[in-house]
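Review session, final week

We close the course with one last complete record, chosen because it touches almost every idea we covered. It is Cupin-like domain-containing protein, a protein from Marinobacterium lutimaris with 317 residues. Go through it on your own first, then we will talk.
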Amino acid sequence: MNCADIEVVEYRSGQEAEIERLIYQSKKPILFKISDFPDTFDLDFYIDSHNGKTSYTRYDSGKNIIESSTARLQDVLSWIKEDQPVRIFGQMYPDHINDKLVDKIPLWKKIPFRPRYFKSSLGKALYFFGGKGSVTKMHFDRERNSNLHVCLHGKKRVLLFDVSQSRNIYKTPLKSDSEVDFKLPFDKSMKRYPDLAKATCYDVVLSPGDMIYMPKKCWHYIEYIEHNVSATFAFYPKRIDQLLGTLSGVFYLGFSFQGMGLDKTPTYKKFSKRYIHSRGLKRLGYKVIESLAFVAIYPVCLYTTINKFVILKKRPY
């Protein structure tokens, strides 16, 4: 696996128009260094800001998930502050709390806000908290959004691949996940996934004030080096991507374990294994089957998504 140097840009207030043009044109990740970024957005700030329940994931010493449950938000954030291997994925806060962060990043105000699933209630900031030893597996956002992901407190490692590397990192069919377990040593993974040797990545450690731009379908894997607070502004440079992203997001929610759980069936697992290792004409054949399957089961996925996430109002992530 090869590592490329990510483009680094200094971001100062007043450069918003220039930076907006840059990210709208780029198909590669960019690391922005925000000058004079305040150190106020730490875990204590969010512990004191809001209460309620949240969903969390806990990991063992091998960075494997051992628990997914719910608890008081303040309790989970306190565990993270103690550097327990616990992660909160996509926490939402009220507007009056979000605005305090957004005010410090004028670029987020400059870019038109086109929310995922057309739900303005998602807000301009989605928060991610993690203690040392927690991870986020390799994936890209199935809603096709671009991201500006800013580190607010602590350090985290982000491993990125652009969409051209999907085959080299063994994308699974009908999903936006990689079959490769990136928390394992590279040499061990190479024995099973030899095309990893052809892949080119960006390996970045984020510190407070670092903001990384991820274009649509940018693969990312995250390791929490120490307890960390980060936030993401998800946006669509083009309205057509917002529409297509909603369609693909609806499919995934209905298809995955959150919906019908078709990705856990023996039939899917067998097909996925053949798909990820296929090459040449065989690969093309499996891609055709994948496209036909998407069309065939989309109505069922749509029904499941509406029932679970609209009628029953289950949280989609």
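Two points worth writing down before the exam:
The CA atoms of residues 21 and 162 lie 19 Å apart.
The first helix runs from residue 16 to 25.
Good luck, everyone.
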